[in-house]
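> call design_seq(struct)
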C-alpha cells in the first residue's frame, strides 16, 4: 500500500476533458471551510507516511512528473539545450542501476520554456518522447491583448509545443466576472487545438480560497486539461492549502462530468520532501491515477537537483554537494 505506481514514463491514456456549457450553479455556492482545510493540511503525514525503502521509488515517480522549467529573462538556447539533456537523463545511470531501475525509461514529464525557445527544445528532445510545454498568453502577468494571447498559443503550437501553460486574467476573478473567465479559457483551449492546456490561476493573487475554488471550477468547465497554481513569479506560489482546495474541485468536477483533470503545483517546490508531500496529498485526495504524469505535474526549476541528491544518499549513505547537481 506504501508503494507509488511503477516509476517509469509508460503512458496511460485518459479521456481528455471536454468543455461544458457555462453553468453558474456549479460554483456560485462554493464555500471553503478554512479551519477544516487547515486542519486537513496540518495532519498531512508528509514523508513519514512513505516508508524509507519506498521513498526512492516515489522520488523516481516524482521525476516523471516534473515539468523541468527555465523561465528567466536571461535564458539562452544553450541553457535550454542543457536543460533538455537533463530532462532526458534526469538521474545518473549508475544511481539508477544501484536502485534497481537500470532498465526503465525515465525522463521528466516535460520541459517548460518561453515561446522563444520552443523550437530549440523540440529539436533537442527529438526522439525522447518528452513533450515541450510553452508558457503563453503574455506570461506571467497575462495583460497583453486577448488576440495576441491566441496568436502566441498558435505560434507555440506551430513550433511544436505539445502543452500550453496559459495564465488567466486575474481581474476577471477579482471582480467576479466568471463568464469572462470562462470565455477566455475556452478561447485558449480552442487555440491550442490538440496541445493540452494547463490553466495557471496565480492563486497567490486571487485573495481568497473561495476565489481559487471558483476559478478552478470555471477553468475546468471551459476545457482546461490541468489546473496549475502559479507562475512561480507571484509573491506566494504553490502551497498545500490551495492544493487541497483545487484537488477538491477536481474531485467535484469529475463527479459531475466523469472527466479527470490534472493538477500542477508550481513555484517554490524545491525539495524532495515537499514533492513527497504533494504526492501523498494527490494519492489521498484523488487516488493513485493522479500520481501519473498524465494527471500530475510539478513545475520546478531546482527540484530535480535535490531529488538526485536524496537518491544518491539512498544509494551511498552520503550527500554530495548541491553544486554537483547544477542543473534542474
Ligand atoms: O512553473 C514553474 C516555476 O516557474 C518554477 O518555479 P521555481 O523556479 O520556483 O521552481
Amino acid at each position: 500500500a506504501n508503494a507509488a505506481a511503477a516509476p517509469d514514463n509508460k503512458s496511460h491514456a485518459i479521456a481528455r476533458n471536454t468543455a461544458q456549457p457555462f453553468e453558474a450553479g456549479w460554483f456560485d455556492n462554493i464555500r471553503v471551510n478554512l479551519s477544516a482545510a487547515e486542519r486537513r493540511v496540518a495532519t498531512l503525514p508528509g514523508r513519514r507516511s512513505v516508508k524509507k525503502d519506498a521513498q526512492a521509488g516515489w522520488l523516481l515517480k516524482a521525476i516523471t512528473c516534473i515539468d523541468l522549467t527555465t523561465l528567466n529573462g536571461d535564458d539562452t538556447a544553450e541553457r535550454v539545450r542543457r536543460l533538455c539533456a537533463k530532462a532526458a537523463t534526469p538521474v545518473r545511470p549508475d544511481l539508477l542501476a544501484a536502485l534497481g531501475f537500470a532498465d526503465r525509461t525515465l525522463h521528466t514529464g516535460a520541459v517548460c520554456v518561453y515561446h522563444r525557445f520552443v523550437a530549440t527544445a523540440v529539436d533537442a528532445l527529438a526522439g525522447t518522447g518528452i513533450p515541450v510545454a510553452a508558457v503563453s498568453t503574455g506570461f506571467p502577468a497575462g495583460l497583453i491583448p486577448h488576440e495576441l494571447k491566441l496568436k502566441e498559443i498558435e505560434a507555440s503550437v506551430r513550433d511544436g509545443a505539445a502543452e500550453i501553460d496559459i495564465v488567466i486574467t486575474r481581474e476577471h476573478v477579482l471582480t467576479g466576472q466568471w463568464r469572462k473567465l470562462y470565455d477566455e479559457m475556452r478561447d485558449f483551449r480552442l487555440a491550442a487545438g490538440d496541445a493540452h492546456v494547463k490553466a495557471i490561476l496565480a492563486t497567490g493573487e486571487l485573495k481568497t480560497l473561495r476565489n481559487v475554488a471558483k476559478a478552478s471550477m470555471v477553468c475546468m468547465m471551459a476545457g482546461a486539461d490541468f489546473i496549475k497554481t502559479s507562475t512561480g513569479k507571484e509573491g506566494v506560489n504553490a502551497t498545500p492549502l490551495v492544493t487541497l482546495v483545487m484537488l477538491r474541485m477536481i474531485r467535484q468536477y469529475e463527479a459531475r462530468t466523469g472527466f479527470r483533470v490534472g493538477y500542477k503545483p508550481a513555484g517554490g517546490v524545491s525539495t524532495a520532501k515537499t514533492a513527497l508531500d504533494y504526492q501523498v496529498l494527490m494519492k489521498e485526495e484523488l487516488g493513485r491515477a493522479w500520481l501519473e504524469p498524465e494527471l500530475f505535474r510539478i513545475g520546478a526549476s531546482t527540484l530535480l537537483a535535490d531529488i538526485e541528491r536524496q537518491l544518491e544518499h539512498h544509494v551511498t549513505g552520503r550527500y554530495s554537494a548541491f553544486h554537483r547537481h547544477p542543473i534542474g
